[in-house]
Amino acid sequence: MKNNKSTIVCLIGLTTIPFSAFAQVGSVITVTAPVIERELYETPVSMSAIRSETIKNGQPMLKLDETLSQVPGIYLQNQENYAQGERVAIRGFGSRAPFGVRGVMVVVDGIPYTLPDGQAQLDAIDLDSAERIEVIRGPASVLYGNAAGGVVSVTTADGRIKSGQTSIRATGGSNSFGKLSFNNSGSNGNWSHNVSLSALNYEGYRDQAEVEKYLFNSKLRWQMDKERSLTAIINLLDNPRSQDPGALTAEQVAEDRTQAGRFTEQYDTGQAVDQQVIGLQYQDLSAGAGELRGKIYYLRRNFEQQLPFPGPSRIDYNRDYFGASADYRQSFTVAGLPFRYVAGVEAREQRDDRIRTQMSFGGDLQGLTADELQTATSLSAFTQGDLNLTDQLVLSIGGRFDRIHMDVADEFLADNDQSGDRTFREWSGSAGLSYRYLPNHQIFTNISTAFETPTFSEFANPSGVGGLNPDTQPQKSLNHELGLRGAFDYGMDYDLTLFWVDVRDELIPYQLSGPDDRTFYRNAGDTTRKGIEATAGWLVNQSWRFETALTLADYTFDEYTSGGNDYHENRLPGLPEQLWSNRLQWQGLGGTFVTLETRHVGSMFADDANSVKVEDYWLANLRGGNTFYVGRKLLLKGFAGVRNLTDRDHFANVRINASNDRYFEPAAGRTWYAGLELSF
């Protein structure tokens, strides 16, 4: 295959894409970022990408873990508790989150879903319209700012690739799982669009785990002329019910894995969410001597949650989140050497009007215990440049400044004024070298920094005093990478990365003993994270392909003393140090396919003391399907799958440093699903 026959374009900040994501040998792979457009083999950063075929082919399309299992360095938990949300950890960043996402930047269609204070939710990501999911495996604060220990970017369709197509998909399965999806895309002259709707109802494996969710995602693109375009984005989430079954002790797990935790059914624990996102993106490829890109966006989120304990356990908030950014890109020569750069600015603000209400032991709501307005504002400026020292050697350098102001205005004065504010001024930098020693083979190295402020919930004072805990500080990291990637003409590709991350003031969760399960945070001194990430793929022939992804890591406390206990050289809780995923795919004529996946998750600990061990386990998933042509224009796809094929007992989530030994959220055993999709 000659280079001029295939070009793959990916949109994200920093880019390294294993060939296993594309199975293209000898092709020109270009990565077009919100930063700098590069060829793959000029990019000095670890990254993985998943195409729409892998996301959708025979999958139930419920959670990110379905498609990210083949990405090394990433670990996902909490796939089955929709109230707490899926947890994402990349090289350990994000592992501390008891709910939602921390430490990892989540971007959807260019809009940062990670808020200025560092928290994010994944419940509004529409996998039915996703064209690509990309993961930066390592700190990326130089481009994304706060909480960018890694990046997950999702790009949805805008109607240009699959124009003029409508599909209806129905899926059902174990534990009363049912999902109905509708998708329509089209183009007319300079206009293109994609509209996606889905409805989910699911009782879940455990008691008190039912979910009902409706999602709408759309894009409308106007190609104003050859160089300029405007794209409008609308995302609507209606999640009237996501119940929370809570965590169990080891004894409760042995007694009945499906039972709900203490107080959950009595208090009807769970959450309800109503969210709207709108965005507008502008692109001008001939703005003077360079290119100009800009976007504005707004998010409104109304949230109600009942936690599984008596006391101040009812949370309600109304959130307004808005932002704008712009960047300019240009290429020229410096001393006869090609140079390209990007420079940008960003402004974001988050306003949470939040209250807490007392829940009695008997299950009755009582009076307010907190009423406050939380405001986080971030102002940022960044730049990055690539200098081609030779045709094969590229030097990349970047820098960023972030000012983040966090303010709590207390409006509940019965316990005195507990207002407070903190301001952080952070510099981030990166430097990398990429050497393309053969056309399809590269070696790269980089060093980068990242920072992560505590979120508003992580600033809570365990003493009961409000405001922002003055003893909690941002954690900072220094990341080193050395990598190789390439592809051979006989259908084999590889990606190998060595990483070393030093983290100062690691943020660690803990819970106080007693009926209150509320989580607090403390800085745990310094930690080291180091390891190897490797992927390989082999296109055996036109029908068979094998892929493997291995992570071998060491996550260790270097310095950490708490309550008179020395945790020096203990492992970080909640993180397996071995992950190994394999995928064998068979693709027949006419759209027939079978995919077998296996995944090994190594042992981990649930607490800082490393006294509660969670054993390792193997999982296997099997799925397959076929495509039938009905007339000239109708396509009917049938598919089915079995998850946890061997019915292995394991945990969907492990709660770190949990009180009263309630560490465990059991995962479902063997489950099945099947579906039909009609396209016309």
From TrEMBL:
Domain TonB-dependent receptor plug intervals: 40-151
Domain annotation TonB-dependent receptor-like beta-barrel: ranges: 229-645
Keyword Protein biosynthesis carried by entry: no
Location, primary (coarse class): membrane
Cell compartment(s), UniProt: Cell outer membrane
Signal sequence range: 1-23
Motif interval(s): TonB C-terminal box: 663-680
UniProt-listed Pfam families: Plug (PF07715), TonB_dep_Rec_b-barrel (PF00593)
Membrane-protein topology: Multi-pass membrane protein
Key words, A-Z: Cell outer membrane, Ion transport, Iron, Iron transport, Membrane, Receptor, Signal, TonB box, Transmembrane, Transmembrane beta strand, Transport
Family: Belongs to the TonB-dependent receptor family.
Protein name: TonB-dependent receptor
Organism, scientific name: Marinobacter salexigens
